[in-house]
Design goal:
Elements lengths: L18 H7 L3 H13 L4 H17 L4 H10 L7 H10 L8
Helix pairs in contact: 1-3, 2-3
């Protein structure tokens, strides 16, 4: 007897959206200390959520395998860019909706 997959789940993010996950992904002890200081200083609720979301984004960038190449291209002005309108147009063309639609 074989099991059949009923649901498909999106892949888990590279960095878990947890204090431990974020702190482990940070490059450098100074950034990690700053992260802990901001999270500990935040009030409950929205302030903690804001700090976690901001630092999660930084941790995702810190742990990106292409981080050094992307950073160098950004500094050199050669990093390809796009507009939100182009992203929305491409997403709609592929059959997806934009958030809020």
């Amino acid at each position: 007897m074989t099991a059949e997959l009923i649901h498909s789940y999106p892949p888990l993010p590279r960095v878990p959206h947890t204090i431990g996950g974020i702190s482990e992904a940070m490059r450098g002890s100074a950034r990690r200390a700053q992260f802990f200081a901001e999270v500990l200083a935040a009030e409950q609720g929205p302030d903690v959520d804001r700090a976690m979301t901001e630092w999660w984004g930084r941790a995702m960038l810190d742990s990106d395998p292409d981080r050094d190449r992307i950073h160098s291209a950004a500094q050199a002005g050669t990093l390809p860019t796009t507009t939100f309108e182009d992203i929305a147009r491409l997403r709609r063309a592929r059959g997806g909706a934009m958030p809020g639609e």
